[in-house]
Amino acid sequence: MTPSCARVRLWVPPLPTMQRDKLQFGFYVLAVLSAAIVFLLVYGFPVSPALPGSIPDSNPRPWNAGRPGLVERLMTYLQREDSPQDVLKDQLSNEIPAGPERNSSGRRIHGSVPVACRTNDVSEVLAMQPIKFLPEYKNPCWREEVVQPADDMYHGNLFANYSYRYEKIFRTFRQQWAKRLDRFRLRCLPYFFIAGMPKCGSTDLYHRLIAHPDVAAPPVKESHWWGKNRYGWCLNYTSHIPFSDYVDLFDGAAMQIADSNPEGHDLNTFHTKITGDASVSTLWANEDWWKNPENCGLLEPRFTNAHYLHHVIPQARVIVLLRNPTDRLYSDFLFFHQLEKSPQDFHRDVESSIHQLTQCMQEMGVRNCIYNSSLSSNSRVRLRLGLYHVYLQEWLTQFPRNQVTVIRLEDYAARPLLTIKHVRKFLGLRELTEREDKVILRQPKVNTRRLSDRKLGRMLASTRELLDNFYRPYNVKLALLLEDDRFLWNDVEYI
């Protein structure tokens, strides 16, 4: 989900009349100019100044969508290692400066921008040493010494700057830590990830899965750290959120896991309780790949979320929910748009997106274009998310096949209990009684289509035909990748 541009209103004092003192009028002008200068320094100019080395973007993002202010842009430019002459030369030749691997083509097209690279730099995640997880815990956990009082915990966590909800969560954690007198505390990461796709039933499956007694629910379903918030997406890209802040989010689950020992304080007892992360963006959100030093200077990412997550949690279990990509796109369009939302609007946007994506793929290749931030921000429909095989290929090259399970929403909707039992077996969870299963199945469905959206009706028949024809060859590649012809979706028209 792309954050909308916030409207910023400047307070302007009432204009003094001609009869008032000229000095008062001078203060009025000074106040307005001061407010305007502060606004521009904080949010940046609507049109970036033509600094040496800047290249106009043919597909610009909204001016206030994560752009740094004037001071930050000037500092970034002054800190560049290459000279203005080199920058100008690169601009005229349209070449990308040498990165970890020099590109042979180097054309600036569809949002690719020349950047200076430091070949010895690596991102925070790749720089991490392997974590030694405790063998007596099924969930990936380790112990850390408590070095600060409970009141001082989480004060620097950047998630707390995002919303009051996170601040409330950390306040609760502090209260819980104040009651614990342990010298060491258990830290945990997710054992499983429900990682895709949007509008494919992930929220409903998540709520039925955490109803299992051996699953410790984190305080939030989706932190979006791996795909978006590592780069500060929720903070409008004003600051990166470090790995330690992400770990803090699972402290509540870690307490549950630590307290789940059926034999009291016997540390030799194997703890079977697990926790998870249901951020569906983990599978596909790689648009900020170029911000990682190890990807610098490339036209497409060498390292994606799959590589980073495997580096930290190689034993993670990955659950992927998919859906007929044509139906997924229409549901996604209805859910994320408030204006210009009708079957006719959808058809118009689909035609435009197919034209843009097809042209990009012909010139730059499929993988380059589905991870292209400029292309994605200039389309009202997320057409690229339906190219499932490209995203899954990333994960299946990093994780063994038995650590990744792929589920169709159509099958989950038709046989929910069978799907839930399949996921439990995949995660190694014990089976529940028939009575417990009935309680879980009686839970109301979560995140279903709104009544106002249902009243809009189905997509136009011409739109469905257009999308089916576009997605058909990619569905074939998906079916071949998974060795399962159900992912051709020939057995389902729509749901």
Task: Please tell me about this protein's structure.
This protein has helices at residues 22-43, 70-78, 84-93, 124-127, 164-178, 202-209, 243-248, 251-258, 281-284, 305-312, 325-336, 343-364, 366-370, 373-377, 388-396, 409-414, 416-427, 434-441, 451-454, 461-482; strands at 141-145, 184-188, 192-194, 215-216, 274-277, 317-322, 404-408. It is an alpha/beta fold and 495 residues long. The strands form two sheets. Strands 4-5-3-6-7 form a five-stranded parallel beta sheet, with helices on both faces. A two-stranded antiparallel ribbon has the order 1-2. Helix 12 packs across helix 20 (461-482) and helix 15 (388-396) packs parallel to helix 20. The radius of gyration is 25 Å and the shape is globular. The two termini are 23 Å apart. The model is unreliable at 1-20 and 44-111 (pLDDT under 50).
For this entry, give a set of tags.
disordered N terminus; 40% helix; 20 helices; globular; two-stranded antiparallel ribbon; 7 strands; alpha/beta; single chain; 495 residues; five-stranded parallel beta sheet
Rg from alpha-carbon coordinates: 25 Å
Ranges with pLDDT <50 over ≥5 residues?
A: 1-20, 44-111
So how many helices? 20
What order do the helices and strands follow?
HHHHEHEEHEHHEHHEHHHHHEHHHHH
Spatial strand order of the main sheet: 4-5-3-6-7
Share of helix, binned: 40-55%
Protein topology:
Elements: H1 22-43, H2 70-78, H3 84-93, H4 124-127, E1 141-145, H5 164-178, E2 184-188, E3 192-194, H6 202-209, E4 215-216, H7 243-248, H8 251-258, E5 274-277, H9 281-284, H10 305-312, E6 317-322, H11 325-336, H12 343-364, H13 366-370, H14 373-377, H15 388-396, E7 404-408, H16 409-414, H17 416-427, H18 434-441, H19 451-454, H20 461-482
Helix pairs in contact: 12-20, 15-20
